[in-house]
Design goal:
Oligomer: single chain
Number of strands: 0
Order of helices and strands: HHH
Largest sheet: none
Structural class: mainly alpha
Strand content: under 5%
Number of helices: 3
Helix content: over 70%
Length: about 80
């Protein structure tokens, strides 16, 4: 459900190269999925199943904390 608004925002932020922006966005999505699976595997093998939830919550909060300051720096289209 979030792909269409996200793609619209990418089109408006990069009107000269929207296909490149969408390609990089897709690559970031797949890279994030791969990193999440790798982190989940490391947590499962080293700490056990009970730590998957707390580590996932920490990573989600870390991602949120890193994204909040950048919201004010995004240039708005004219």
């Amino acid at each position: 459900m979030l792909m269409v608004p996200q793609q619209h925002r990418l089109f408006s932020l990069a009107p000269d190269a929207p296909t490149v922006a969408l390609g990089l966005n897709g690559s970031a999505i797949y890279g994030g999925g791969a990193l999440g699976a790798a982190l989940g595997g490391v947590v499962l093998s080293s700490a056990g199943v009970w730590w998957v939830g707390p580590v996932a919550a920490f990573v989600a909060l870390l991602g949120f904390a890193l994204s909040v300051p950048s919201r004010g720096r995004v240039p708005q289209p004219a």
